[in-house]
């Protein structure tokens, strides 16, 4: 049976359109962020000759919270799906909508990223066909900066793999212990009021980051990625539990300004920390930095949802279009960035002009691709779209 709400007054009376807008904005921030990864000193698949620390503070503005926000919204969406369909239907739907794009992405979309990485960093001289032979056979002979390049890989599609696993765990919980889910939902709704909306999740996330990050640094490989699971699974389940609480969404208004100030203050502290940090930094200062990191991460989630609820809680043709477009755009965007960044290098453009051009080209390529994908029935499921609603252009009316 579909899960029931905890009370007659808990279920929101209308679709949470503002969460669609938050999801849209968060996914499109990925284009800016991954273009930025080409220009900063942090490791990435390809690097610009202009790479420097100049825009790293801007990158830090979204680094702590961007993916956590998407897992939170995915948890909310999963809960609403489970209100409408049986858990078994939910599992089938999630598997089709996530695993097909993941497998297709790993075989078709992602390989150009890995190919151009070995071309640029290892001067690999083989053609793309030769590389794909190595790729599909799990070649592990490419060593980059002391690490083995794992092939095949999901690169940026790790989010899809994790989301599927978390969806399976949610389904399992509902299938085995639905009463426990309802009890947890009731308890959380009672707790998430006022200052506790900020303090309690931050306390958990800080404890996890302090305890696990050093031993289990982020690897996005699913196995042994215990710090990320302890964080991302928490926000996913939090979203699933709190989704139908009208009280929670109303309470956000009271803490939104405090949350926004915490985001700004934490961002400044993180910039100062990473600018001054050395290899022999005291452990207490490292732990303080981790507290500030999660403070910014959770406060940003709350602030984004609160302000979006105030200003973006409306429907429109743009929302409906972009809600469908974001997942195909997400699947494609990083490959387009890597290919185009590599291709633009011979032009030796100034960094600012090149960056703007790269953002525009990526967005244009993604949306042109989406316009093709949504019109071709066999491409739709490969990019997470429903086969049953293939786009048909409206014909001109006579006269």
UniProtKB/TrEMBL annotation:
Keyword flag Transmembrane: yes
GO terms assigned for molecular function: acyltransferase activity
UniProt domain Acyltransferase: residue ranges: 17-370
InterPro entries, A to Z: Acyl_transf_3_dom, Glucan_succinyl_AcylTrfase
Transmembrane regions: 21-40, 65-83, 95-115, 157-176, 197-217, 229-249, 258-276, 291-309, 321-341, 347-370
A Pfam family matched in the record: Acyl_transf_3
Recorded coiled-coil stretches: none
Superkingdom of origin organism: Bacteria
Keywords linked to the UniProt accession: Acyltransferase, Membrane, Transferase, Transmembrane, Transmembrane helix
Name of the protein: Acyltransferase family protein
Native organism: Undibacterium hunanense
